[in-house]
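Notes to self after the call with IL:
- keep both proteins in one doc
- input above output, always
- annotate only the second one for now

Protein 1:
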Amino acid sequence: MSTSIDLFFKRVKMYLKTMQDYSANDWKAVARANGLDNFEAVWALDIGWFEEPNNRRGGWSGVSRHEVELPDGRREGIFIKRQQNHTTRSWLHPFSGIQTFEREFRNLMLLQSFDVPTLDVLYFAERNSGTDRRAILISRELAGYASLEDCITYWNQHGYPDRAVWHETMARIAAVARRMHQHRMQQNCFLPKHVFIGEREGHMDIRLIDFEKAKRRWTSESALQRDLDTFNRRSPGVSTTDRLRFLLAYHEQRQVNARVRKTWGKLVALLRRKGRNLL
């Protein structure tokens, strides 16, 4: 019971935090030096679109890439997400809705509190302009990282890396997914293109992105079933043996047991329901 109460107040705290502008400590000085220390300056940037804006939900939402100069003279890439009247309904806002970036920001902060590796959030703020609602979310570029989708495409064409490297990659992704699901967080679009692989301090590093649609589930079982089904269906070219190896790592098992069989059986059933017969 106490755990549920603690989680409730953690969510309330995260909600209240979004009522104020958020600026990471290591971003404030950089923002000032680059003229990006206020909402209006960032909103007015004319830097083109990295991804064409989505026009839906009664508004629009787009992503731009920009570079800033750091105090030591190096340049660093950042992604600036801007949106206007791009809302979704929630249990706290059943009528007016909230901006989808607010939901993503709250999810990212919550995941960081759970030690789930995601994007480095630098800035988040919302403003009203007349009848329009605007939001900005800035994150650090994952320089040197590649999506699992791009990696699998490359490996299918040019050969997979050393088996030990491939097995470690799967094990680390499985560990991150397990940690996320243990906190009942469902990514809701757990695709290879949203899993990034890189190196940090000499070790493989996994980051998850795109949490606009993420949500808490009542049980970790519900969260894992939806996400692992999506991940399984959208990972072409991966052998059945490697898919089983991923599940073993996810459940922290060296051999197949009842828990692994249960998850495997559910994934197979979901595939067949969608018209597929094999993993």
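Protein 2 (the one to annotate):
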Amino acid sequence: MAIAGHEVEVFEALHLPGGVLMYGIPQFRLPKEIVAHEVEQLKKLGVKIHLNYLIGKLESVDQLMREGFDAVFIGSGAGLPMFLGIPGENSVGVFSANEFLTRFNLMKAYDFPNHATTPIHAKHIITVGGGNVAMDSSRTALRIGAKSTLVYRRAREQMPARKEEVHHAEQEGVNLQLLTNPKRVIADENGKVVALECVKMELGEPDESGRRSVTEIPGSEFQIPCDAIVVSIGNRPNPLIPMTCKSLSTTRKGTLEVDPETLQTSMAGVFAGGDVVSGAATVISAMGQAKKAAANINKYLRGEPLKDEAALSAL
């Protein structure tokens, strides 16, 4: 947008720009120096970045429009973590993958006391989940000197993580406990995690989608001693923005509803893309949608039709 000649302002909720590239992806996968360089390039283009500025709390989207912004792009992601819903999950030492990775990536908890974030002292960290973020969490656990175990309720073939990510995790020393489902978190008298109780699972027949179901094996319960648990089973978009701007329509899944061709929301001049539209996906997918939205915002600001009128008239 800046290259196209528009004045651009970015509102970042955290104290450093870069979003999930800074706080969600570990240093060993994406060096933060690369992200910092990209941010500096944006600043050189004249992009103004506001930090510690949470849209939906300090201001709503419609307030931004009333203040004189001609268009708004919402790229707030899917940062609301999902949890297991099992007994003991509120024990001290249970973290969402978001919090765990943010502590180590953005707040540099591994460099305590040079950085003030309270470090996570743990000798054995269990990560629950089978996606790419779970792999990042389990590999990060190794880098703070902890034993790392990954618990996943299905078989290796059903893991949503890329095969190479699983390979790297195992190669580095992550212990995979497959066909294993968490049942409850066990804590001591101080409420601190001491173990995760699990049950073994077995594969059943494929369901309508073709994915094999899993069922518990009766009497197979067992405990894995640990002092920290990272839950990495997915995220949902934070409802803060649509809750504070009733003109924005959402889907049943809580994602923002957009025109799939233009990525414009139910509000004229307000566009959205990435996980806040698709649900939790990849950075590459989000960047692709952002570029598509930028092209349409440019058309909108220039007063050009967002859709091909000739193609529409042929329908």
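Annotation: The chain is about 25% helix and 20% strand. The radius of gyration is 22 Å.
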